[in-house]
Amino acid sequence: MKLLFVPLALLAVGTTCAQTAPAPATGQTIVLQPGHMQVQRNPAANRPDRAPVYPGGETAMGLFFLEHINYPEAARTKGITGKVLVNATVNEDGSITNPVVAESLSPECDAEALRVVPLLTGWQPAMRRGHPLTVLVQLPVPFGAAGVMHVEQVRRQPARGRHQ
């Protein structure tokens, strides 16, 4: 009887420890960054080996937003600037669907961001083991001064030690 009790007690302790381990958070958006992707030996079924890419990269996406966003007059008069974060799905065919505001700026800017994001077409889809994969992405849509790029001009100094 003692021999049967010890294995059962160990089994009960093991299952109790397994149940108290913290469960992974679900329902959270995973922000994929191209420089931080790694191929894993046993990845989750929905984890891509390569993140989706907009044609021309982030620079082209920024230019697209500058050309297509109509800065709402109500936001302009209130001096509202910043970015609306939009979660959207990049499908296997490179189309983008299901835009949802994840972080709001103002109702007018949110509506404009939801209008413009589906116009971003031609994505290279995420890939997993050589096959396209549908993934959720988060896009920052700039409004006002948030969309202005500042380029610093650097004056070249003559190299030291050279004589002309």
Summarize the structure in words.
The protein is an alpha+beta fold. The chain has a domain at 30-37 and 46-147: 2-Layer Sandwich (TolA/TonB C-terminal domain), CATH 3.30.2420. It has four helices and five strands. It has helices spanning 2-20, 57-68, 73-78, 107-116; strands at residues 82-90, 96-103, 126-128, 131-133, 135-143. A three-stranded antiparallel sheet has the order 2-1-5. It has a two-stranded antiparallel ribbon with strand order 3-4. The N and C termini lie far apart (99 Å). The model is unreliable at 1-27 and 149-154 (pLDDT under 50).
Radius of gyration: 25 Å
Assign an overall shape. Answer: elongated
Distance between the termini: 99 Å
CATH superfamily of the domain at 30-37 and 46-147: TonB
CATH-assigned fold name of the domain at 30-37 and 46-147: TolA/TonB C-terminal domain
Give the helix level as a range of percent.
Answer: 25-40%
Number of helices: 4
Reported for the largest beta sheet, the result is:
3 strands, antiparallel
Spans where pLDDT lies below 50 across 5 or more residues: 1-27, 149-154
**What class, by secondary structure content?**
alpha+beta
Q: What's the SSE pattern?
A: HHHEEHEEE
Q: How much strand? A: 15-25%
* Sequence of strands across the biggest β-sheet: 2-1-5
How many E strands?
5
- From the 3D coordinates, which CATH architecture of the domain at 30-37 and 46-147 would you assign? 2-Layer Sandwich
What's the average pLDDT? 75
User: Which CATH class of the domain at 30-37 and 46-147?
Assistant: Alpha Beta
Salient structural properties:
single chain, 164 residues, TolA/TonB C-terminal domain, 3-stranded antiparallel β-sheet, 4 helices, 29% helix, disordered N terminus
